[in-house]
Design a protein that fits this description.
about 140 residues; mainly alpha; 7 helices; about 55% helix
Length: about 140
């Protein structure tokens, strides 16, 4: 379960990111987004409707959607390649965030840039997920 002492929430705040993206990131890291598994746990949708929006057959959890879904997960490999960053793929979103932001070592400006990139990527992924759910044809 998510712990407030793991440091990931301290890394979320970034002065160049809109507040709505920061709130999205906090909800994401605390597993409070309305993913299908969370909606099913609250009895809002039926268990049969909790599969990933991308049709991969897995349950739509935050870890699956952002890290292991075959449609969305390749984004992280492409971004790391573009940035020239070497890192392993974490299985938990909080670990992924901390690892991604800190993979540059102790350089504050680089860490801030990676934080900005991570927050932008999760925002784009969440918006694309919502487009697929609500604007599906």
């Amino acid at each position: 379960m998510f712990s407030y002492c793991d440091g990931s929430t301290d890394l979320v705040w970034h002065k160049q990111i809109p507040l709505k993206v920061l709130v999205l990131a906090l909800k994401l890291l605390r597993n409070r987004l309305p993913t299908k598994d969370n909606l099913e746990a609250r009895n809002i949708i039926h268990h049969d409707a909790c599969f990933c929006v991308n049709g991969c057959g897995a349950s739509e959890t935050v870890d699956h959607l952002f890290l292991s879904c075959p449609v969305f997960a390749p984004l992280w490999t492409m971004v790391r390649s573009w940035l020239g960053v070497v890192a392993t793929d974490a299985e938990m979103l909080q670990d992924h965030f901390v690892q991604f932001v800190n993979c540059s070592g102790g350089f504050r400006a680089r860490r801030s840039f990676l934080q900005l990139v991570w927050l932008c990527c999760v925002s784009v992924l969440w918006h694309e997920r919502n487009n697929r759910v609500f604007k599906a044809t």
